[in-house]
């Protein structure tokens, strides 16, 4: 075939073509040469060559047919495109004409031109429908350019808004396929925002209308489905869902703020959110406070049930107020003492649960309240916290703790009130932290601030008063317990032994037991309080401890050896006083130790000792009272030296 193709030359002449074929065939030449003329061989070559030419002709014919078909197809496509462009232009021209006719027809009197006006209106409507159908088809095919052209024509028609509606409807087809409708809506709006400017001359209006459609139809329906089923049956789930849905809606709104939606997009989006949630937000605070009260009551009841404890009724007003005033002024226990078996009835778990519920309520209040109602709503939540945490739990524990403090003359009394103090201090810190962290930001710029601060102050003052009363009565019990130890363990012969030369002890048994008891109570006070409160209570206990020992020592008469033993006891009490780490208490015991020296000093040195640094400023009657305790005081020599 390649050889056959080589025989063709331009211009093609048949005789020359055959001549060239003959000359190329061995035995086909007419002139002399190495091979003689061979007609059979030449005939065979002609037959083969004719077959090759026939095959080549068939191939060329097929190629020609294929090219002809392709050419016809391209011609048809080109004709169709030309026709479409012509048609498009006629639509544009027709729209311009019918639009002008429609405007003119508005001015014509109906009685004379009713038929004309009717035909124009009909044509106007038909053309409008055709344009909208064309826009719909172009959108489905993704032909942005065609959509822009049709939208530009429709801009001057009444049906332009319907064109926008069609666009918005079709944009949302297949847009909500995920489980998160808010994320779907955000992605949809981002996609349309990129596209809408290429189609419409007023993209911000179209995008705003899409967003309005999403909020008022899709989101509103979703929110309703989520909230209505739990609105009446499950307040906790309802509040959590309301908070979650409102938060996700406002987050979506924040994302949409980056788009151009017109002049006041903040107001526009706020109105859309309000339209969805207004029916739920109008009575939100009533649901919130109702739920918080029932939940708080349940937390407390569950705790007291776990303790198998039936709450006592703590009365208010009348006799109860009178009892409270008498107790505060006289420190007397009114009514029988209650054995709490060491239970403080203060639970950190309960406190944390109540504060956690209130914290969530404050967060929901901040998000769901109208700004003008926020301080008032936050105050209502705060009053519920005060009622259940401060009054129903802490104050009840204080009252119960006070009632459990035994009288000061009770023997072997168990003093649990300091445990109440310790836990109450912890609770106060948690309460104060929530007040500052979660309530203050909601009321800081409103008149409710002073009201909340005043209420907090009153609550704390009332509780501190009860704590002070309980601590004071507890200290009295401690002193009473020391009195019982001294009365039971201290013998008169301790300080006036029968055999002065056979005293083997360093200090009395009463002193040992009192010091052990005091050290235990000092440690308990330090563990129960913090800051300056520790020093204040320890100083009060130290002063009372000193007074007890001072008065106790004055009940006995002292021999010389007994006086030495008393000095040893006071030295031990002074060691115990050092644990208080209160300078005044240590100073009191230093002075008492110096006074005890008057029990053993040589009569000739009495005046010198009394004028010493530690005793010089004391009243002479105090010095005299200690000298009188000496067994040898009646001797004329001692009385003469002290006079």
TrEMBL record:
Signal peptide interval: none
Annotated ranges, domain Exocyst complex component Sec10-like alpha-helical bundle: 93-642
Keyword terms: Coiled coil, Exocytosis, Transport
Domain Exocyst complex component Sec10 N-terminal residues, every copy: 39-90
One protein family per Pfam: Sec10_HB
Family: Belongs to the SEC10 family.
Protein name per its UniProtKB record: Exocyst complex component 5
Species name: Balaenoptera musculus (Blue whale)
Lineage, uppermost ranks: Eukaryota, Metazoa, Chordata, Craniata, Vertebrata
Gene label: EXOC5
């Amino acid at each position: 075939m390649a050889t056959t193709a080589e025989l063709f030359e331009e211009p093609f002449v048949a005789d020359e073509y055959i001549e060239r074929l003959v000359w190329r065939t061995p035995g086909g030449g007419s002139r002399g040469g190495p091979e003689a003329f061979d007609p059979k061989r030449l005939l065979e070559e002609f037959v083969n060559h004719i077959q090759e030419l026939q095959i080549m002709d068939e191939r060329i014919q097929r190629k020609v047919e294929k090219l002809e078909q392709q050419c016809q197809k391209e011609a048809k496509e080109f004709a169709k495109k030309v026709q479409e462009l012509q048609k498009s232009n006629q639509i544009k021209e027709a729209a311009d004409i019918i639009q002008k006719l429609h405007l003119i027809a508005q001015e014509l009197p109906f009685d004379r031109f009713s038929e004309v006006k009717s035909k124009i209106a009909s044509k106007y409507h038909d053309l409008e429908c055709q344009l909208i159908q064309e826009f719909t088809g172009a959108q489905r095919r993704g032909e942005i350019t065609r959509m822009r052209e049709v939208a530009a024509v429709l801009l001057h028609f009444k049906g332009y808004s319907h064109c926008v509606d069609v666009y918005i409807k079709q944009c949302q087809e297949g847009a909500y396929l995920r489980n998160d409708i808010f994320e779907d809506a955000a992605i949809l709006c981002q996609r349309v925002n990129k596209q809408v400017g290429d189609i419409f001359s007023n993209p911000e209006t179209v995008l705003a209308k899409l967003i309005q459609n999403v909020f008022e139809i899709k989101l509103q329906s979703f929110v309703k489905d989520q909230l209505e089923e739990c609105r009446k049956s499950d307040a906790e789930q309802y509040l959590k869902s309301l908070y979650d849905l409102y938060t996700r809606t406002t987050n979506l709104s924040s994302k949409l703020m980056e788009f151009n939606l017109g002049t006041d997009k903040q107001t526009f989006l706020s109105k859309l959110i309000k339209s969805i949630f207004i029916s739920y937000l109008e009575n939100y605070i009533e649901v919130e406070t109702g739920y918080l009260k029932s939940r708080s009551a349940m937390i407390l009841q569950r705790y007291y049930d776990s303790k198998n404890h039936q709450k006592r009724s703590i009365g208010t007003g009348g006799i109860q107020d009178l009892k409270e005033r008498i107790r505060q002024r006289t420190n007397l226990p009114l009514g029988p003492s209650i054995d709490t078996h060491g239970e403080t009835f203060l639970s950190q778990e309960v406190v944390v649960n109540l504060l956690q519920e209130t914290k969530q309520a404050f967060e929901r209040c901040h998000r769901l309240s109208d700004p003008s109602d926020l301080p008032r709503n936050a105050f209502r939540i705060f009053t519920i916290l005060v009622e259940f945490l401060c009054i129903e739990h802490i104050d009840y524990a204080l009252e119960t703790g006070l009632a459990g403090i035994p009288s000061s003359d009770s023997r072997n009394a168990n003093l649990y009130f300091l445990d109440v103090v310790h836990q109450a201090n912890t609770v106060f810190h948690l309460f104060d932290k929530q007040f500052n962290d979660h309530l203050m930001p909601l009321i800081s710029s409103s008149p409710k601030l002073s009201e909340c601060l005043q209420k907090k102050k009153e609550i704390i003052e009332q509780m501190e008063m009860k704590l002070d009363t309980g601590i004071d009565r507890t200290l009295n019990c401690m002193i009473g317990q020391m009195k019982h130890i001294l009365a039971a363990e201290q013998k008169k012969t301790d300080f006036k032994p029968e055999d002065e030369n056979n005293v083997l002890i360093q200090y009395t048994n009463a002193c040992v037991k009192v010091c052990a008891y005091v050290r235990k109570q000092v440690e308990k006070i330090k563990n129960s309080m913090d800051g300056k409160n520790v020093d204040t209570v320890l100083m009060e206990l130290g002063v009372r401890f000193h007074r007890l020992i001072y008065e106790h020592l004055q009940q006995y008469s002292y021999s010389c050896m007994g006086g030495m033993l008393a000095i040893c006891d006071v030295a031990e009490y002074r060691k115990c006083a050092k644990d208080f780490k209160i300078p005044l208490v240590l100073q009191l015991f230093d002075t008492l130790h110096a006074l005890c020296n008057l029990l053993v000093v040589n009569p000739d040195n009495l005046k010198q000792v009394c004028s010493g640094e530690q005793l010089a400023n004391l009243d002479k009657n105090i010095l005299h009272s200690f000298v009188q305790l000496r067994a040898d005081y009646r001797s004329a020599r001692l009385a003469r030296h002290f006079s």
